[in-house]
User: Fold these one by one.
Assistant:
Number 1:
Amino acid sequence: MRYSKTLIPTLKETPAEAEVASHRLLLRAGFIRKLTAGIYTYLPMGLAAVRKVEQIVREEMNKAGAQELLMPMVQPTDLWRETGRYEKYGPELLRFHDRHNRESCLGPTHEEVITDLARREIRSYRDLPINLYQIQTKFRDEIRPRFGLMRGREFIMKDAYSFDVDDIAATKSYEIMYEAYKSIFTRCGLEFRAVEADSGSIGGSSSHEFMVLADTGEDTLVICSACDYAANSEKASVAAAAIDESEMLPLEKVETPGKRKVSAVCEFMAIKPSELVKTMVFKTDDETVAVLVRGDREVQEVKLKNLLGVADVDMADDKEVFDATGVPTGYLGPVGITVKLLVDQEVAAMKNFVVGGNEKNFHMINVNIGRDFEAAEVADLRQISPEDPCPICGGKLNLKEGIEIGHVFKLGTGYSKSMNAVYQTKDGKDQHMVMGTYGIGISRIVAAAIEQNHDENGMIFPMPLAPVQVVLLNLGLKDQQITDVAESLYKEMQEKGVEVLIDDRDERPGFKFKDADLLGIPLRITVGKSLTKNGVVELRHRKDGITEELAPENVTARVLEIIQSAING
Ligand code: ATP
Ligand code: MG
């Protein structure tokens, strides 16, 4: 590749809209450009990095016995009605009508399409197990597309689906994928961790997410310091709290003028937030509910969604709270209101707590569940905290941020039952296929790799994901000797299969160095004054800045050696 003939529109300025490093750097290095919210063009360098991820994924999937196919992006919504996900999936599913007024959607995932294929094409136990995958553009109308490739509306995913005769066989398929994922992310040069995950709207019994640890991650992971337990905090169950056995004291209404926030109420009453109970109102498509959690806790919305069996819950705004309860924000409490009350298990163990008084400028003290109000349901509804014990061993938990790059699910027979996907057993009986589904965020991996590997000068690609392995700077375009050596090195490396970008632009050295760093190419070779003076060229490692001086004839062999050891470990 010649820099002078490749579209790599680097930017000096940091784009204002980019909040995280990967987004900022992908824009600055000319890897991607935004078309519209959450929708990007991959420029040559960006696409090259994406292709690297795809290739690793493809090789490992094939090695694991999966077969590649390609399904349509446009799907008839009739299939989604069969599985009930037409309603359940929510507004992330982009629906539209064609000229015949038939409704379709853009595929956010392909369980319906693959199950339709399986019910038509798989007949007998002899056809199983089978694992089919594709690498394809997905569309999800994300409510908050952000962080560039991290959370797009259009993005590239690898999705695989396994079909088995029974649970035991399906577990085997799941384990094969789990291992394949470990190989894939290791080969990508990522630091990652598999954690227990919530199964979400896709349904199913068990699932793991593969997470890249990074401060900018949107997921919070709970990792036990004593045992193997690691889970997404959406899933992490909180151990039950000890029941407070105190005597119930008489309920009182007290004046709390202008004190609406937990902190203000606590200061005013000289109590700790853990002695207060917040009443939070949420809305689903069908109902409004109030959730009670301790003053120092947060509601975990995924737990709430699962309890309610809905795809979406939204926190009610001030007006919606007032419309549903007649109480102004900051003063809502559970005593005497008609909204359905869902109570966090920790609150259910408390006695004599403080709540809103359901009247402006009032709170209630010595409130007790069972005496002063009834819970419609008691459940684990809060976000786990670092003070909670490990739910498995009681050990100390650490909370870390992570980016989800892959997800494996055991689906069971949910889809095969709703879509009637059966095979014939040995004895000629019809039986539902047992399924698994396995996703990898191909384009998100590029972003995650950059989050994990960058410095103030730019990206630092791990060798296996780098769009090219070497950037070769010709710093003497007008010097025949320098140009001859640069060009012959370029040719020689290409012949040996090295991926090289030659910077043959008529630009100052400082400019070329800056761009080379920004692009994050693992190896930089500089042909310049040291050649004419000392007969050497410089080889610099982007990651640690270590520089080697080499005679031109030794460069290609050294580069090959470095690449080999970086790719084969
Ligand atoms: P998230 O919780 O981040 O929305 P998800 O659970 O919806 O992810 P899956 O349905 O499991 O994701 O999709 C498989 C993989 O696709 C994810 O592990 C992630 O790497 C990637 N992915 C999902 N949504 C996006 C998106 N909006 N942009 C880029 N990649 C995505
Ligand atoms: Mg999602």
Note: The chain has three domains: 46-69+108-235+399-451, 252-379, 468-568.
Number 2:
Amino acid sequence: MLKLVNTAVDESRQGEAYSVNAIVFSDNTKRFFIESYGCAMNFSDSEIIASILQGEGYAPTPHEEEADLIFLNTCSIREKAELTVRKRLTEFRKLKRSRPSMLIGILGCMAERLKSKLLEEEKLVDIVVGPDAYRSLPSLITEAESGTKAVNVLLSREETYADISPVRLNSNGISAFVSIMRGCNNMCTFCVVPFTRGRERSRDVSSILSECQALFQQGFKEVTLLGQNVDSYYWVDPTTNHPVDFAMLLERVASIDPLLRVRFSTSHPKDITDKVLYTMNAFDNICKYIHLPLQSGSSRVLQLMNRTYTREWYLAKVKRIKEIMPDCAISADIIAGFCTETDQDHRDTIDVMQRSEYEFSYMFIYSERPGTLAAKRYTDDIPDDVKKKRLAEIVSIQNNLSLESNKKDIGKIVEVIIEGDSKRSNQQWMGRNSQNKVTVFDKVDDENIHIGSYVHVLVKSCTQGTLLGTIVDLPLTKK
Ligand code: 5AD
Ligand code: SF4
């Protein structure tokens, strides 16, 4: 007999490890513990892995010390992510000394890159499984139990796990990730993803729709459609022979129910179309928020990065988004200190940031990744202190932009879905508005208003990261 107990709501999961829902055992079921690093795609993959393991009779546990299987779902995108995982592995090794039957596995992007090193040289793990090989986990576990080192890092051109219903981990029961495609064909020169996650492939449209419908029926209010490059989603419906592009997919998901909010990530500036923008505009329940990575504001650096657009193209895209949806929030990924970046290139990045008036950004120092095109072609020649100084400047510019953007919302009424208690006080709720801004407001004593409810919030003040307000009694179109 198993009893699931929900753990706390996690307001920001980017780059964080998390463990599964708490669980109370009254039998000797085998247990797995899984910790995820990196992008939303990895967190979503962990839910597929949990489903595969549950199918084999394993149950999740949030306590590593009672697990029979420990999995780290890893990220290779920057060196720091890899270092964190290595540190965790050493801790798990110590745990294994007191429980030798425990198996430790590395999943995800580091698996492909470091398989032989982790297995043979450092003897840190028993199982290594790449992002396209999770279906082989049960047989690999059996192999590892018999004392053989178990590895499968084969990449696939077809695998989308379309038929697997993810087991929602650490879920607030309100918002869920839905993977719509895997891999990436873009070959940005700095990026390891095309090597660790393989070629791009889209998931069957009907399986995406069924997953979203099922989530809505279970009470979820928001889905985020995930892919490395969602705008190149493309699926030919075998029953009708009609192709489905990303705009059409968005429309179909948004049509499930007006009460189901739809978000998506990530867009590529070269691929996002007017058709997508018009579809977003046509549906109230498609959130007015686009994550549009910039990487650099210098056309010269963009070319070295193989981003296939110029600063002018990027700025024209931002202008188009605002023309079609003036209230649309935009966020970016920005890399400081890419190979050969000059002070002028850096100033060009800041200039694009200011012109684009981003609501948020994810900002990184360039980290050379072995095997990437940049590592082969260019020298990582920007000194660390210069990279850090440039990053600090970019962060400070973004902080100002975020604050200015939030200040403009003071006096507005925003629609929010209540996701849980705010981080600071259990007397307050938090949720996000359509623009993905975290909004915090006092709880009210009304049985119709609870986690999962749509509420209107009058914004009264703000910080750089949060809108602060009070619930107002407006006739709600949504309950
Ligand atoms: N160094 C620093 N940042 C990187 N990213 C990808 N590869 C690297 C790298 N080698 C950033 C990009 C990407 C985001 C997910 O991570 O900005 O959009
Ligand atoms: Fe990496 Fe570029 Fe693909 Fe994004 S679009 S995953 S940055 S190669």
Note: The first strand starts at residue 2 and ends at 5.
